[in-house]
Write a structure and sequence with these properties.
This protein is an alpha/beta fold. The chain is built from 14 helices and 15 strands. The strands form three sheets. The protein has a seven-stranded mixed beta sheet, sandwiched between helices. Helix 2 runs antiparallel to helix 11. The radius of gyration is 21 Å and the shape is globular. The model has no long low-confidence stretch (mean pLDDT about 95). The structure holds 4'-deoxy-4'-aminopyridoxal-5'-phosphate.
């Protein structure tokens, strides 16, 4: 039977009905338990039954569910802004709350434009992002994103103000024998050239995910890459916007992924883990410099959404910080992530069809290849990623496989982003079930 509320990729019969959660497990209507090794899409960082998160919802709904930001501010939104400003790198001391990642990125792109206009730099409207990146599905964020498959059919509607440079991907694009130094110099030079070719006085911002998520599967930057890219941005008066919607909120072992890169950007977008799946929320962290320019200029960011600073969502955001920082759950991420990585390496390190095992913290990816020597991806027509996902679900494992683009620019990969509360036994389950799913899905 067709489901009335989703578009026809799935029929009701295809999908189990989720009815409950228990720690890192989701439970379906038949009582079957699925180990959530991807947090949905890297969302459920604290699992599915966290008592503090549940209490935050109950307490807040009893007090106040909603108040529009043009009439009121609220305690939960003020508190969450204060705490995020305190915890974020550099002078990111202003916070703009939205309902998710795409809204956070739309806000960033528009704020970059408005900042330059209020500075009298009226021409600065172009955005440079990277291929093989994802910044959301609304038209502005999609235009910035460099996922060719997601862009393809909407291309005529995408913004011509968006331009793209190469990804930073050691496995796929660092030449054999090329040092990290030479590779990152090459990428920084490409950005520099692109800015100059476009006209540096016309470029507003450079946008990147510190660790690439949905498009490529947890691709970390090569050492020194972001410092060099930031230096190029500064040289040309171009803002640096980091999209930490997926890799932020502790996922890589530090609250912000960019802390490990030693850069403090002009804006950071976060979402997913900020609400931990309990509430939809995103936020844009903004530097004092940008805020002050607008405050002394028009005094108004010409943008907005109905649910800005939603008290329920902000209350959960505060509870997430209580858990991550207050209860120190964040400190688990790096060691458990390392444990998971080692378990994956032990199991798949010599696998003929696993080309790369990568990532940071509890944000890990496996790239699947038809041939390890040539790194040749599988034929997209095989639909390998889809098969792995389906088989993993049958095994009681949620993982996030993607792949098979129309132009074959990337291969199939599996993204793992389990909740930060997993224990040893869950690591063993992830590796065993993933192996079964991959083995059963590979072409014979
Ligand atoms: N940016 C990144 C890096 C993402 O991974 C995502 C979601 N996968 C988004 C933006 C868009 O977020 P949302 O789906 O909440 O709009």
């Amino acid at each position: 039977m067709k489901s009335r509320y989703v578009f026809p990729r799935h029929t009701k019969a295809d999908l189990p009905i989720a009815v409950g959660g228990d720690g890192p497990f989701l439970i379906d209507a038949d009582g079957k338990r699925y180990l959530d090794a991807c947090g949905g899409a890297a969302v459920s960082c604290l699992g599915h039954s966290d008592e503090k998160l549940k209490a935050a919802v109950h307490e807040q709904v009893d007090k106040l569910a909603y108040a529009h930001t043009s009439f009121f501010t609220t305690d939960p939104s003020e508190e969450l802004a204060e705490r995020l400003a305190e915890l974020s790198p550099g002078d990111l001391n202003r916070v703009y709350f939205v309902s998710g990642g795409s809204e956070a990125m739309e806000s960033a792109l528009k704020l970059a434009r408005q900042f330059h206009m209020e500075n009298g730099q009226l021409e600065r409207a172009k955005i440079i992002a990277r291929w093989q990146s994802y910044h959301g599905n609304t038209l502005g964020a999609l235009s910035a994103g460099g996922n060719r498959w997601r862009r393809a059919q909407f291309e005529p509607m995408l913004s011509p103000a968006m331009h793209h440079v190469s990804q930073c991907n050691a496995y796929r694009s660092q030449a054999a024998g090329e040092s990290d130094e030479a590779y990152t110099d090459r990428l920084a030079q490409e950005l520099d050239d692109t800015i100059q070719n476009l006209g540096s006085e016309t470029v507003a911002a450079f946008v990147a995910e510190p660790v690439v998520g949905a498009t490529m599967g947890a691709v970390p930057p090569v050492a020194g890459y972001f410092r060099k890219m930031h230096a190029v941005c500064k040289k040309h008066g171009v803002l640096l916007i980091l999209d930490e919607v997926m890799c932020g909120m502790g996922r890589t072992g530090t609250l912000f992924a960019c802390e490990q890169e030693g850069v403090a950007p002009d804006m950071i977008a976060i979402a997913k883990g900020l609400g931990a799946g309990v509430q939809p929320i995103g936020a844009l962290l903004v530097s004092d410099r940008i805020y002050d320019t607008i405050e002394t200029g028009s005094g108004f960011f010409q943008h907005g959404h109905t649910y800005l600073g939603h008290p329920m969502a902000c209350a959960v955001g505060n509870a997430v910080l209580d858990r991550l920082v207050g209860d120190d759950v964040l400190a688990r991420v790096a060691p458990i992530g390392e444990q998971l990585r080692q378990a994956l390496t032990a199991r798949f390190g010599n696998h003929p069809n696993v080309g790369d095992i990568r990532g940071r913290g509890l944000f890990l990816g496996l790239e699947l290849v038809a041939d390890r020597g040539t790194k040749e991806p599988f034929d997209p027509k095989l639909g390998l990623a889809g098969k792995i996902k389906k088989r993993a679900m049958a095994e009681g494992l949620m993982c996030y496989p993607m792949g098979g683009t129309i132009d074959g620019e990337r291969g199939d990969h599996v993204l793992l982003a389990p909740p930060f509360i997993i224990e040893d036994e869950h690591i063993a389950m992830i590796v065993d079930r993933l192996e079964t799913a991959i083995t059963a899905s590979l072409p014979q």
